[in-house]
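Sorry to interrupt, but I need a hand with the structure work. Leave the record below and I will have a look:
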Amino acid sequence: MKLRVIKTEAQYQEALKRLDEIFDSKKGSENADELELLSFLIEKYENETSPIDLPDPIEAIKFRMEQLGYKQKDLAVIIGLKSRVSEVLQRKRKLSLDMIRKLHVSLGIPTEVLIKEY
């Protein structure tokens, strides 16, 4: 396959087919280099044609809490009162800049997710 920038759905499908054919190539082989380049081209095309939206901030907080095994009381230690946490999680209170900073540092949620409108 001649490597080129993927611009159409047909080229994308062709690239995916070729990727499948050479997927198990041995490291250092000619096919391994083609595999690496093809992966970059496919990723570039997918990012341009199907960008993934950032998650909802509240859902991101709930997901991270679940991952860490946190309860509302644990989040209250980070952002303040338990009642405030409840209001935030129920979308009755907006996240403040201070809360966003604390959640970013404590839970590792990217700020660009936390500042998104919800």
User: Anything to note?
Assistant: The mean pLDDT is 93.
